[in-house]
Amino acid sequence: MPNQTSIQIKLPAELEQHYVSIFASLSNKLGDIAPLRDRMLKADYVANGVYTEKWASPTDREKKLDEVVPIVNSQVGTALAFLSKTFLSSDTIFPIVSAPEGDDIAIQFNTLISNYADDFQWRRNLLVALGKGLRYPLMAVECTWETRKVNKAVNKLKGNTPQISTEATVKSGFSIKSLDMYNVFWDSSVSPARISEDGEYAGYVEAMTGSLMIRKLQNLGALDALTKSNVAKLMLAIGTKSYYVPMHQASGNTTGGSHANFPLGETFGINQDGTPYTGEKQRLEFTSSLYEVTTIYYRMLPVLLGLTEADLPGIDINSLQVFKFIIVGGSVIAYAEVRTNAHELLPIFFGQPFENGLGYSTNSLSEDLLPLQNTASTLLTGDLQSMRRLLADRMLYNPEMVEHKDINSASVTNKIPVKNTAYGRNLSEAIYQIPFEDRLAGTRIQAAQQILSFSMMLSGQNAVTQGQFVKGNKTNSQFDQVVNNSSARQVQMALLLEDQFFSPIKNTLISDMLQYQDPVEILDRSTGATVKVDPSALRQAIYRFEVTDGLIDAAKVSNIDSLQLALQAIQANPQLSMGYNLPKLFSHIMTLLGIKDMDDFILQQPQQPTQPTQPTQEQPYVV
Questions:
Q1: Which residues, 6+ apart, have CB-to-CB distance to 464 below 8 Å?
Q2: What span, in angstroms and rounded, lies between the C-alpha atoms of 49 and 42?
Q3: Is CB count within 10 Å lower at the N or C end of the chain?
Q4: Inter-residue contact 334 to 328 (CB < 8 Å)
Q5: pLDDT in tens, 261-292
Q6: Is the separation of the CB atoms in 67 and 390 below 8 Å?
């Protein structure tokens, strides 16, 4: 089934190799991010507790510092916990609030968004992306309206007996996918926060098994439009060329499952060498390599790509369009589409939690803290080495008087026998202890603790923000003020992410929902009630709504506290209660608080029986 967010196109056969060369030049941009890859590798080494900044060979993986002061991982983890609590802790993630008359529409929006978040694992993907943003110079997610083919269980009657069966259906929704920054390429002529709006291209490379590649293309409806010969070319496009595997992942990320003994000729009418199948029993022996699948979003004039109005019916070929291409093995164009999204953005969004105007030279939190961690770890290691030196002191010994194995015995209680040649000689001649005095003993630990406090100043954190108890004599208000001041730097980071990263995602979410959501009845998973979604009503009411998140709090936007005070004041004042609809105000407050089934508790007023009207008796006229 073709993706409804796009119009699948058939590229001119005579220009296919030209397109392949264009896309190859774009995917070669992966080489341009080599300096960023080195920085990301360094951050990953630190996250894995590796001291050496760069491994010389795979055999160096076990080279670790004996002791590492946990500065980077602990403070990056604290910052990630703050961001996850700020942006990802609510059930809906991006809740929508409305005026009282739009409560029913808000429930439809929030139920849809909650289902998208569960079906497409928003929390997991956003949490992984935010973690990369704190370790790496930048992060990226792909946000698209996605259609997946799924099976569901249904009841079918066989005679008069119900039988369980399955039928194919589709599941559509808004997908948020965290991208592997080692294999993402983009238009680096614009700043990261502007790539989706101003960039010419962005894409990523994946390595996947043949079955996963086929499922990806089937969900897009790509295989339906391919000839048997082209499908065979896909199956032959094995191997990874541009896909980059970091050394610390190399053990489990470079091989895939075996696809041996596949009847390519009999199924697709083509032999392994590309010649037509003539009936001979030939079978392709696949290797265990993976398929390299490149996804490219490209903003360009269709006419410059050699496309005509016949190729794109209903599309202005002289205006900029966003195309999506999927290339397998760097040589076979498996899928091509022109996207019809109203937002006209490249659906890959980049973010930098510590954007400071330096572009790609901006340091991540991990990079800022690493020098302090290395210094503190060196001081700690020096102090521990001094203690080891003191316990196992070096000495000189005379091998004519004592044995080597006796001097270096692991037991601290073993006696040291003296050789016969030592009889009658001064035993001080057998062993000489080298004097050792560490005048800095204990001071290095204090210096490491001071460096730890410097790192707290750098990241804007303290022991309280990391969940540690701090004794003191402050009052509750003074303590709350200290905590609020300590989170100011974290709030600044969240403000940057809200504007550069989450706001474009929210705008894209609403745009795609209004454009592509079908009428449907879905289950509200928090209440168990069925919600009927009317897309036409959503489109009419959207401009009266506001999309919130953990930073733009729904309670602040809708002034829930003020509404609750107003409700109490109206209840206490009879004159006010006569001028306001208290049940409607109470229901609106409950809806803003997330209670979606208040209508189930409305008391139905019993109908009063109508009394038959008595004919009025005419009164006599009295003079």
A1: 470, 482, 483, 486
A2: 11
A3: C
A4: yes
A5: 344 444 555 555 556 555 555 444 444 467 88
A6: no
